[in-house]
């Protein structure tokens, strides 16, 4: 019996992550500097962990609020008011089991078999894969390159890709992997397109506070009305060194609360209450920690760009947001094979651009959210590998 063929095609056709494929090749290699994953090298800070430990020891181990404990949803409302202005209500927020689950739930709500979801590419590969698993079709609209090597979005290209089957637009800004960061005018133009065509927007603004030269990136919150069809997906992972916690949130219209609570109920049945206590601490006490991380990431960004560009064979510009450098090496076209070679010969782990879909094929992605000395060492190793070619 062919067990695989008896599975649903959406499951069979789920692609292997090109990032994980390289990571699995190099995982555990002595002395390797891993820049393939989107996380820092810090453990979760004590002010978060201790609140979680205390809640666990106090016996907060039972079923809990499907939407998230009231204290965490209030903390999310306060966090948004603090960083985005205006006022927010706790019933605009749903706590989820990761940013990835937030994306899956948003897709479950707005798209399914026969539908299309437009997204900007190069893109984090989990999104188009999640679209496919939902039975819908992801339609990539490539970002455009500037003469300096940066990235821009043409809203007209988004509108040209819309068909009668289009149900939603997925917009990730600041972008993983490119660092492209939409300005307010671009967001307003995309929103106008969604309004004209009665489309949902799934807004992935996870890296909004990892913005260089500004307190935060522009957000759809700056241009949208309360009744606009926008679902915001987010995570605790990036801002507070909590990638392994698998906890995120959705910001939605209050009228959608019961729908999304039902989706939580029939997937994970809620996030452990003791973990949510750590989330409260992150939101209420974590602004200084986050600001320090953004400052350090900016220094690492500049160090990596300067060293690689100095080889004369790397094309890269400092990203406006997020914490990834998406760069090309002159003469290298098969970036997946090259990423394996770099692991073996330079002891540095990169994500190949082939993992990020149309427009990413000739690139590498390096996460520079690490200690400065590690980034400098990784840059030197990469420069040595490049010069040997």
Spell out the key features of this protein.
13 helices; four-stranded antiparallel β-sheet; alpha/beta; Aspartate Aminotransferase, domain 2; 15% strand; 389 residues; 2 domains
Question: Can you characterise this structure?
Answer:
The chain is of the alpha/beta class and 389 residues long. The chain has 2 domains: 4-44 and 288-382, Aspartate Aminotransferase, domain 1, CATH 3.90.1150; 59-285, Aspartate Aminotransferase, domain 2 (3-Layer(aba) Sandwich). It contains 13 helices and 15 strands. It has helices at residues 9-12, 18-26, 46-57, 70-84, 99-110, 126-133, 155-160, 184-196, 257-265, 273-285, 287-309, 335-346, 372-387, and strands at 33-34, 93-96, 116-121, 137-142, 144-145, 151-152, 166-172, 200-204, 230-235, 248-251, 314-315, 324-329, 348-349, 351-352, 364-367. Helix 3 runs antiparallel to helix 10. The chain is globular and about 60 Å long.
Q: What can be said about the biggest beta sheet?
A: 7 strands, mixed
Number of domains: 2
How large is the count of helical segments? Answer: 13
Q: Which CATH architecture of the largest domain would you pick?
A: 3-Layer(aba) Sandwich
Beta-strand content estimate: 15-25%
* CATH homology superfamily name of the largest domain: Type I PLP-dependent aspartate aminotransferase-like (Major domain)
What string, H for helix and E for strand, traces the elements in order?
A: HHEHHEHEHEEEHEHEEEHHHEEHEEEH
Question: Can you tell me the residue ranges where pLDDT is under 50 for at least 5 consecutive residues?
Answer: none
Annotation, overall tally of beta strands: 15
Instruction: Trace the largest sheet across and list its strands.
Output: 2-10-9-8-7-3-4
Share of helix, binned: 25-40%
Rg of Cα set? 21 Å
Q: Examine the coordinates and then state which fold CATH places here, giving the name of the CATH topology of the largest domain.
A: Aspartate Aminotransferase, domain 2
The coarse overall form would be globular
Question: Under the CATH scheme, which class of the largest domain?
Answer: Alpha Beta
N- to C-terminal distance: 48 Å
Structural class: alpha/beta
